[in-house]
Amino acid sequence: MFEEIIGYLPFLNFDVDAFLNVAGNDPFSAMIYLFLKGGWLILIPVLWFMVKNGWLEYIQNKHAAKREWILLRISVPKASEQTVRAIENLFALLAGAHSPASWTETWFEGATQPVMSIEIASIEGQVSYYVYCLKGLRDLIEAAVYAQYPDAEIEPVEDYARQVPSEYPNEEWDVWCTEMTNVMPDPYPLRTYPEFEDKVSGEFKGPMASFLEVFSRLGPGEQAWYQIILQPTDQRDFRKRSEAIVKKIKGIKETPKVSILDQIISIPLSAFMEIANMLMGSTMGGGEKKEEKRDGTPEILKLSPGERFVLESVERKASKIGFNCKIRFLYVAKKDVMKKSRAVQPFIGSIKQVNTFNMQALKPSSKVGVNGTLWWFKDRRNAQRKSKMVRAYRSRSGWSGLPKFFMSSEELATLWHFPILLQVKAPGLRRIEAKKSEAPANIPFG
User: Fold this and answer.
1) Cα within 13 Å of Cα(348), Cβ side
2) Distance CA 344, CA 332 (A)
3) Residue 231 CB contacts under 8 Å (≥ 6 apart), including other chains
4) Which of the two residues, 425 and 251, has the higher pLDDT score?
5) Is the pLDDT of residue 406 over 80?
6) pTM
7) Which pLDDT score is estimated for 45?
8) CA 223 to CA 412: how far, in whole Å?
């Protein structure tokens, strides 16, 4: 009976000598022999992976095609005196868009956690703020903005990103594009807006001041687009990463979890070691471990001031609400007026103001977008990257390009906020010149 079962399972009846003889004469026949004798089993996980991901992509694309999106332009009053903290509160409210899909919704309906996009665009020097979201989230966006800026104006507009070509090279237009990526693991924070406030005068000069100045200086035929993709999250994975960083800084060694398989293997092995020790009259493990002497000083007190600051900053970020994010920047212009030094370097310089050497930093990625260091087929590959980036920006794609990384509401408010208009003088900034108010109740009507 046992031999009959083996006959139906050829991989249990594998003849090594026969395989080696065939391999020595004809490698191709050896591959066929190996495949027929059970080698096909390795294809099962590969096929399962392909079918699973293919189905998921198909059903998610089908579901996404049914969604309706809207682009909202936001204008704030010129006399607004709100601080950056108001924008942090705005992002905390936007986190209410988190609606994770259940298992059945994911695999049978193709539902996913929708993303939002917060943007700043300069169209020939006219700077505007935008939010791109599902139509069903418009009320949430408006509530979040009006709660902090009661006199703001929010209106749906046509998508400015669809006014330029999406395929490159192009006879009339050209584009420079990139995604900003994090240098360190995302639990490490960026420099945020409280650190840009003067401790004496209280004056705030953040990175957005120079950023808006650059955008407002663009001329005819030039455009600059700045986009941050936001995906609401429950932050469980981020908290685990933060806890691991905190333990590392504190010098706490994590005890690895022992799996059931490890336990099954270790039990007979430990028994064998005990019996061997008894028979040989010695300890095979190298003797008893000596206890390490401790000076009694808590590990936290051994940290340097810099290490303690990093620890406090990581814990502070972990306590904040945040999103999984992706940052894109595109400079689009007609070829006869395009000047990279007018927009690209100033933008990167503005962003670098939030970088720190001991914690987090943002930098342009060489893996996506324009890369001047490519060796092979440089022009063609850069043209493909430009086309892909423009399409990703238009669709507000959360998956195209680099992986998303976590940013807290405080970091986001530093990198995207309405201007402190008493300090930012960008002439091209779109804003309301005066507050709107209701008409007096005693106006006579004839």
Assistant:
1) 16
2) 10
3) 113, 115, 116, 323, 324, 325, 398, 404
4) 251
5) yes
6) 0.79
7) 81
8) 23
